[in-house]
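Input set for joint prediction.
Command: fold jointly, output tokens.
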Amino acid sequence: MWPVTVGMTSNAEHTPGEGPRIELAKPKIELDGIGKDFVVDRNALPVLRDVDLSVHEGEFVSIIGPSGCGKSTILNIIAGLDEPTRGEVRTDGRPSARRLGAIGYMHQKDLLLPWRTVLDNAILGLELQGKPKSQSRSRALELMDSFGLKGFEKNYPALLSGGMRQRVAFLRTVLADHQVILLDEPFGALDAMTRANMQEWLLQLWESWGKTVILVTHDVEEAVLLSDRVYVLTARPGRVKMELSVDLPRPRRYEMVTEESFVKMKAGIIAALRDGNTRNWVVDDGNGIPTVAEGQP
Amino acid sequence: MREGPNTVYMEAEEPSQRVTSGVLSKNYASMVLQWAPPLALILVALGAWEGAVRLFHVARWLLPPPSSIGMELWESRSLLLRHTWVTLEEVFLGFALALVVGIALAAAIAYSRIVERAAYPFVIASQTVPIIAIAPLLLIWIGYGIWPKIIVVTLISFFPIVVNTVDGLKSADPDMLNMMRTLGARRWQLFTKVQVPSSVPFLFSGIRVGVALSVIGAVIGEWVGASAGLGYLMTRSAPQFLTDRVFASIFILSAMGITLFALAVLAERYAIPWYRREKQDKAIKGR
Ligand SMILES: Nc1ncnc2c1ncn2[C@@H]1O[C@H](COP(=O)(O)OP(=O)(O)O)[C@@H](O)[C@H]1O
Ligand SMILES: [Mg+2]
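tokens >
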């Protein structure tokens, strides 16, 4: 059976009553045997292969993998910007052909519209939904402070720092008010300090707000600190190498990164990532530290 | 620790200060640097012209010195002004029509593949037909009024507007369009909220070129047949050897072209303030 799961996680063949309570509900988002080939110079470039992935309501799930393994492609498929070559995407248990526009998606780049002020960038989603502008604006203004944007409402994006631009993009995604939010390496371009601050800030926000989040990252610590579950992908063509439940208590604090169980999980993910190029299995040796074994079990 | 507004302010103000202080002190020096060489060149050229004409006793009907062109500008000012207004009217109306037709055509071409396939070849072909050959035909078809001139101006200046605007509408960042789609945007919303704003800087570079061409268009229109305007004045003055009047007309026409160009630049700054900031930002961050 591929992948081998680690820690408390139950796998795809989970039967009700066995695992955590949350597994009883139908997954909010479900990828079933997803494959994706791009055509490059008339050749098929396999990017994803047999990806099974599910996310439950209110869950925070991270996808981690080497650069170019197809992480953004997975989010594009979930968001409905792209269709898989093989397999099925289900939302609330049903195949969903019309999910484009129903799922929040914050891209790797901030993609702010340079001709709009911070405020008008933030309300873009509400505007496209046809909500009255003045109402949307006052809703956005209420949130400016907690997004660290107070006083910058009337600025154009050009002169904002990278961190602020990301927060405007994030506010835009949040205001569009979708139940599921996809985040593609939201902190990737930030320096370490800003990044740590942003992670804590996102934690607080998410814990107070309980949306379903799928986060793509290449930062192991970030994945463990923020997530309920982590999927580790192999190098291209990406498949799920490991699925890990992070059973750290909430609310999470940044200090947890030095705790023993945290370090163990981090080591496990790093081991799986290191081995991302081979077809070896990740095995749980019983003490919580997964090791890599040769060949198939 | 949560990132408070204080850290945020510091983060944001750093680059903006660099822009203003850097650009302000540089602005003054760069303005001098920008304007000094052409001004010096003009003064030297005028001085040489004046000197040569006087030194070699060149006849005034052959090549008048700058000083007598200046005198002519002053002495015939009411006559010149009357004809200037006529030409200016043709330029304005013709260019306004070019703007309307050009933008509408560009929007249709960028919005619909079918329109693009059907119309774009003709837009390009229209530029291969010499305007100077069409102008007499317009005279035959429409007569001597202001319309043939307006049409010549339109024909000559709509091309850069169409081509630039089409490029601009197509230049919209595909990632931005995808982001809009995930927010639920429809085709029309993608067009009006991303493609159209992305195209405005392109439209303005089309306007800058088009407005300069439109002055040429008006003169061509008047050469072929007119009873007023600077082009007409030139064709009337040349056979009478009123060479300084011809030069005075040329002077006014280039001043008109330069002024219109400068107005287009000003309008661009006013209409799309974000664009210059974006360019500055890219220059600073080296993106
Ligand atoms: N539209 C596309 N056409 C062709 N190849 C693509 C396209 N999108 C992505 N790819 C390729 O698919 C692979 C995975 O891309 P991506 O999902 O962006 O990776 P990641 O986000 O994990 O870094 C890369 O090799 C990339 O070049
Ligand atoms: Mg990516």
